[in-house]
Amino acid sequence: MVASLRGVSQTMATIADELIERRGHAASATRRRTNFVIFLGPAIVLTVLFFIVPVIIDIAVSFTDLGRSLRITAFTTEQYEKVFRTDRRLTQVIGLTFVYVFGTLAIFNVTFGLILAITTTAIRNVSGSFFRGVWLLPRMSPSVLYILLWLWAVSPTEAGLVNQVLMQAFGLDAPLDLLTSAPIALIIISNGFIGASMGMIIFTAAIRGIPEHLFHAAAVDGAGTFATIRFITLPALRWPISFVTIYQTLSLLVSFEYILLLTKGGPFYDTTVYALYVYRRAFESGQYAYGAALALFLIVIGMVVALIGWRFFDMERLLQRPRIEVH
Amino acid sequence: MVTQAAPAMTMAPSEPEIDWDSLASRARLARRTRAVVLYAFLIAVSLPIILPYFWLVTIAFSARTGVAETAVLWRSMAVVVPVIVGFWLAAALARNRRQLWFGFAAVAAVAVVAFALLVGPDLHLGNFIFLWEPDFASVVRSRVGEVKGAVQFPNVWHAFGNSILIAGAQTAIVVTVASLAAYYLSRFQFPGRSSMLRSLLVLHAFPVLTLIVPMFLMLYWIGLLDTLFGVILVLVAFELPFAIFIMKGFFDAVPWDIEMSALTDGASRRQAFVSVVLPQVRNGILAVAVFTFIRGWEEYIFVFTFLIRNSNWTMSLYMYWVRDDVMGVDYGVVSAVGVFYLVPSLILYMAAQRYLMQMSVGGVKG
Amino acid sequence: MAKIEFRHVSKRFGAVEVIPDMDLVIEDGEFAALLGPSGCGKSTSLFMLAGIYLPSGGELLFDGHLVNEVEARDRNVGIVFQSYALYPHMSVRDNILFPLRFKKTPRDEALARVKAAADLVRVTELLDRRPSELSGGQQQRVALARALVKKPQLLLLDEPLSNLDASLRLSMRTEIKSLHEQLGVTTVLVTHDQIEATTMADRIICMRAGRIEQVGTPDDLYLRPSSLFVAGFIGSPPINLVAGKAEGGTFTADGTRFPVVGASGEITVGLRPEHLRFGEAGFAGRITQIEPMGREILYVVETGMGAVRVLEQGSFVGHTIGEQVKVAFRPENSLVFETKRQKLIVGAHVRTPA
Lengths: 327, 366, 354
What we know:
The complex is a heterotrimer. By secondary structure, chain A is mainly alpha-helical.
């Protein structure tokens, strides 16, 4: 009897415990949900609203005839026909884009960035930071101002800085009009001055990360300046170089700000790269639907490159499990 | 090897006697040549950058006629270049700290005197007229005669205010939202966390400029086109993935122990976040804030596309239109606006340089 | 092979003077060890020998020739770094081959020499691996092979054993020593570990704060340390140092007295733990700590003049904590220093040093 009573009371106690625990679970589930909403809610709403929705809008609009009137009158695939068949200018634009992207990348963003990183780390630290600081100036300047300086420098009159130097120091007779005679070179150089600094920073950090003993060992083993660069520095920069190449390809491909400011894509369409072409079609000619169709290709490329970018990040570190389980 | 090595080293009859002195002088020469070549190269490639900026500043503070003068530029270069060389020489020749400071002081004193004599008389603040005269355009025009198309300029302080508003609001929202989200992603286990982190990685590298057309249409349809609020929302959203990514890195670095001890001391996770973890990531918040602010301050393409009325102009648009309108007419005023627009950016960059460097390099595998 | 000379060599890094004035001769074929605590300038001296650092002043001579400014690659030295500094992206073979690349050695001969060097340090079967696939000891051997393959006139070892575990350290010690005996190459070892220095080197250069404290054989440093610093640095467990006063052949410190030879005034007496033993006579104390170390037992004894370490041979713990004991020693085993100048007056087992 006593034993059974004790049994009952024990059962009661277990039930009570379970009830408390369940209530606890319910409470923690609520807290879990509110935490999610409080912490992640705003970010998710903004991201969906301004990344996902625009992509959907872009796809939708590209199948309409949305034009200057900003009104949709029909659903059609004519925009894509235009892309693949009727728009003759597109071939020229794509060709130019290749020249621009790979020209800038090969000359400035990678090669010159690398040269700057190697040379500025080879001299005394103070001087090295000074020169790196100089090369960061263009990146630190607002785009409008940076391009203003370019416009003045290459001004076709005798007052232009380039012309002054050429005429006074090198005995040139008449001022040059570089904006009409060499516009492609100009957009490559003006973008390259900015692009080089990104490579410079990343490569500098990577070079700093090479153990000093390796350089010492190479010096003792008989390697000269160039052998040291070839056998010690460059092998250590394999990852940074591919990182810079991929990300700068993407950013050159989609950006047109400096070109728009410098040449407005001209003369005529001579410096209109693909991204700028999208912009001009949409906002200059008011062909919003066509612009949306063209932009879709860039969006796809952007996503693909961003996916490739996964390779560069330490997934394990990114995904490491939180060590506190309660919410 | 053992038995061969030793004799091989001592025999080597073909090897001529080593001439240590010529090796030493060759090394000396190589070292000097290397230094000269390196510095010459770096100076040569840096001049094309320094020169235009220097030009901007000299014109802003010295131009009187509105023409692009270079006389002052060359004269001040004649002071600056020897001064820099002087500093270098002082640094190279000084044997101890006292000599170094003495050398610097001497060079600086000479520089000040030379500058005052050669450039000083030309300096004035007249080109900053736009700061106190809203209708400076007419003043300038009357000075040089009638010119092309008249853009109606708003008061520069109005544009300045708009820029501060956009950059400030954007910064406040981005920092808040990104800190919350980054903390949650870094510290909470929940279903879908890993896929969310992966999409964040994609988003942070995704080029937002490609969305400009649909974004324009979206703003138009919801009636936010040509409003500062619309622009702020767009810029916030675009900065967000990158900011979350960076902030997550900072949160990841906070030791778990202090958070665990906060929990055992009776705090809830929210309380632990506010009172224990947030103070640990102050540097991260600072870095993200400065970076976002600069982006807002310098933003051109989106405001140019989404803002139309001149009462909505930001500094970048103001700068753009001043240059477009007065271009070729009054270099002095344009330069002055340029200096006024550039200086805040530079100051912010310099102040936060250390953190920004970390940010741009972070995440890349070695 | 080369004879190395430092003549008034100094080294500054900016405003920091690491080595004020260094004079040193290392004989041809000698195995010398630079010994000292971290930051004493021993690695800096080594890097000056290698040509990695340039001396700020003075003369550095190889076989009587001034080499101050000669580039590292022209000096024909081999060096093994603490971190081994193997080129991470090259195979072991390419790592060892690397120094020969720049000597225009014919390919066949170069490969043969790589093979020979690898055989010498027994890494032949690892030639196709990457450094990251090797254990610490293997990396160490590869680094040695790389340093030896060019038949250097001078071999430099910068803390080569400090990244190895204890047992490996022991065997590498013997191996490096026998390598030196086989090759006869002048060798300079940098270490902060006195046992490494005393077991491997013919001669030890003990350094402190950029200055040479003492140069001598391991025996010299043990029996006749020129200063309190060297006495404290050499020997494990460390020497007991007791400061007090000597008068008429009796030493007094905090009430404890014992006889002392050949000195008077303010002196410090150094008693090595292994020279102390428990006995019927001697100064009194109480055992406060017992540390069995295998073959030996270390007792810490609280005496009138402070804690004293006593090392007893054997593995049998014959005493208990709290036990009252008497500690005795032979006066000729004690070291006597002048307290003020911290210099040696009387060494162990010998007459006053000249």
